[in-house]
Amino acid sequence: MANERVVEAISQRLGPDLCRIQDTFKSDLQLPKTLEGLLLVAENLVNLEPKLSLLEQRFGHRTKLIVRWAREVDGLKSDQRLVDKYKVHFYGSREGDRIRPAVQGVYTEHGVWAAMWFQFWAPDPSSKLAEAYAWLQAQLLVASVLAERNWRETEDLRNPRRAAGRLIRNLHDWHTEWLLTRLEGVCHEPRALAKAVIHEGKRTSPDWYEEKVQNGEAKAKGKGPYRSLPSDLKAFGNLLSIAYGFADDASDGDPKRRGKRTENGRLPAQFLYPHHAMYWSILKRLEDVQLWKESGTELGFYVPGTEARNELLDAAIDPAEFGDPEGAAIAIEDVLGFDPGISDLGSLPHLSTVFAKAAHRGRHIAVQNQRLRVARSRPRLLEIKRLVTGLNDVYRMARSSELPGAVSASEGEEICRAVEFAAACLVTGTLAHTVRNARIVKVADEDEHPPNLNIDIASGVWVRSYEGPERGRFRGLAATEWVPSTKTVVIPDAWGVLRWKTGSIGGKPFAIHQLATYEGVWGRHVRPLLGRMGVSERHQTFDGMAAVLPAWFRGLEEGEHIGPSMLFGQRDPLAATHQFYTAVNREKLAQRFQEVLDDLGAAIALPTVDQRNGAVLARCPADSDTKATIDPKKKSWVGDDRTPSITPMSNVLQQVRDSIAAAHVGSAYTFHNRLALYTALALVLVTGARAIRTPIPDLTAIHGPTRTLCLQEKDRGDGLHARLALLPQRVYDQVQIYLAWLQRSFLSGSLDMPTVLQIKASKSRDRSRYGAEGFPLDLRKSVFFWEKGAADEWRPVELTGKSLQQQCEQVRKDSWPIENQARHFHRTYLTELDVPSTVINTMMGHWHYGEEPWTAYSAMDPVRLRNEVEPILDRMLDHLKFEVVRI
């Protein structure tokens, strides 16, 4: 059923025309019915296009359709919902220290398709051997197409294709580089290649690997890999001979002959290991590793494994916050700048120097990959002005038949439609194939929207679907306890594109033509004119224009990642953690879009729709009759579905406050737990502290004059995640009352309590300080709870997300359904009050490399931050009706 669903999902996105094209060459490419490995195959086919074109000019075949189809499929990578849901189907799965390819189950009957999935193992795609491997893939595909065309009933193509596909698969790894080196000089010439592979098949023994071990050319012992290599070489030669009619070169080899399939023989062909370039590429797509790369150097570090990941998700904590740089790997040759041999060991620098350089190199790679990324890609104002003016001029000229050259009336109409299509790509920041499939919907029909981008013509807005972040299990409350979150973003038609759309095909206003037709008209008539007007070459294509506004929005404020990601439907790694914790007011988000485009339109002198000058793009100002009415004061939300509303949070605080008064005359242990719970809730709500083990180990470390506290609860080894948290006066007073209670308890002996509690050092903060796997937590300075055990004995337990939740549950059932809900509330509350994103990220500890507010290179002023943040936190406490409990 899962395979049927992925095929159905892909077919819906490709559309009937591309599906019909796919059917025409499915036997040439040997497409499996369930399309295993689809996205990597498409990506490789697009990369093979130059080689396929050269072979086509000389020999003629049907790969143009295949490449066109592959380009459309390759565009599906931007559909993150599809990729996340079926990533194992497309990319494979991780098994320990290896990757199981997605095509492993289709090797036998779909050899050509499976061979197109692989890439050469070396990380440099421009190396000679990588080029040779790509040429062999292209030769296999062309031979498969031509052989299908020249097929005769007396010849069975299944065995040659299967064996040739196995050969190409086996050549992707380093074990067979020797053979690829021999074929390197002839891989681009079919006749010479056919002769060479047949010759190599005759001179190669099934025991070729054991012979290399004996000659000292290989190290491992035992049965060698790829024992079918000789027969596979001959089969590839046979396939080339059938395809091109090289009758004299036919091989007498038996392609059915196979070596014994031992585990040692199969393993390298079946899996990808860390030395392989595809290993890290696929691992990144499976989201088990973060990969940074610069100038051929890769730095990979692992994020939490499956068990830890599920535990974090169940607590509503984003696993991406807990990467492990201590497990980072960088090759020694990348650190030293050369590949040291055995004889060079004496000239190596001191080990501490190597470690220092590795740390520096790793941080440099991280900064280069995660710094503000719009420095070069963000379009300049003049570039946008030329682009928009160019589109408007071409549109007016096409409508009035003033275009240069002989352009017929029908061609002029096609040009107008193509310009409207390009304008839609520009203003929505959406790729061409998605814009073409946009459907007419109604905003009111929230649960019936097709995926991706859609249009509400009546309201004059674009409607984009939004898939929320990954979630764990949830034992939920009634829906009224949570901020209701929808699955769509509303985008106003700020530049009036929709006013030209009066008709549709099948409910799709931009489906009047096929995408290829739009591209053809654009390439023949519009793009040359834009180039003549001085429009940047990178903005002369549909998808190039789709990148303009997202880049412009990302450059408005360094820390503002959520808005651009939601508005333009882009999966931004910088926005992922922010979105995990934030529910966004949908009307405010739309209003923000309108304001930015109003300002941008005024800056580039874009005409208004009321001037009626026939421009395809025109501003819709506030007093325009065509402007969509979007009230920013309305309360519909999109994004985080784990944000509690203010009322239940206020009720929890009230109930805990009441329970303190009730417990004052009861057990001293129960009273302590209620007072500690009230103090802990106040701290996590105003600081947004993560629901982990002992986020605040020392309450006496709060700086009294400024009421600031250094928080370092994020498990990172470099210390750059530490942040300065501000406590409002009321919370600071509550902490002092709790500390005074602890002091009295120790002096009076009312509680049988030890002074320290030995706990696990689960964070780098504690391991670096104590140098051990555990440390003594001073109970005289920390928030902790008492837990009743057997024989009515009480024992202390540290503050964690789980213990905080359990204490709340004792006050009222389901009052704190997720451990980390204070962090969700904190970020959403600040966002709703329009606090600048950079300030929110500073308070939450949600920054990336290059955005740190507290490092030596930061410009964050703690005094100004306190002056801006304190009124906001006081307002939060007022809404929560927080009062200091004095005892």
Our Rg estimate from Cα atoms comes to 32 Å
Average pLDDT level: 80
Strand order of the largest sheet: 5-6-7-9
- Which consecutive residue ranges, at least 5 long each, have pLDDT under 50? 219-224, 248-269, 287-298
- How many distinct beta strands? 17
Most strands sheet: 4 strands, mixed
Tell me the span between the first and last alpha carbons. Answer: 62 Å
Task: State the helical fraction.
Answer: 40-55%
Decide which structural class fits the backbone: alpha+beta
Estimated share of beta-strand residues: 5-15%
Overall geometry comes to globular
Individual helix count: 37
Report on the architecture of this protein.
The strands form seven sheets. A four-stranded mixed β-sheet has the order 5-6-7-9. A three-stranded mixed β-sheet has the order 8-11-10. It starts with a helix and ends in an 8-residue tail after the last helix. It contains 37 helices and 17 strands. Strand 6 (453-456) and strand 7 (461-465) form a beta hairpin. With 887 residues, the protein is of the alpha+beta class.
Question: Which secondary structure elements does this structure contain, and how are they paired or packed?
Answer:
Blueprint: H1 2-24, H2 26-29, H3 38-47, H4 49-59, H5 63-74, H6 80-85, H7 87-91, E1 93-95, E2 98-100, H8 111-117, H9 128-149, H10 158-170, H11 177-183, H12 190-203, H13 208-214, H14 229-244, H15 263-270, H16 277-285, E3 289-294, E4 297-302, H17 306-314, H18 332-336, H19 351-370, H20 374-377, H21 381-399, H22 409-428, H23 432-436, E5 439-440, E6 453-456, E7 461-465, E8 485-486, E9 488-492, H24 515-532, H25 542-546, H26 548-554, H27 562-567, H28 573-581, E10 583-585, H29 586-603, E11 637-639, H30 646-663, H31 668-687, E12 708-711, E13 723-726, H32 729-748, E14 756-760, H33 764-770, E15 774-778, E16 784-788, E17 794-798, H34 801-811, H35 821-832, H36 837-844, H37 862-879
Parallel strand pairs: 5-6, 8-11
Antiparallel strand pairs: 1-2, 3-4, 6-7, 7-9, 10-11, 12-13, 14-15, 16-17
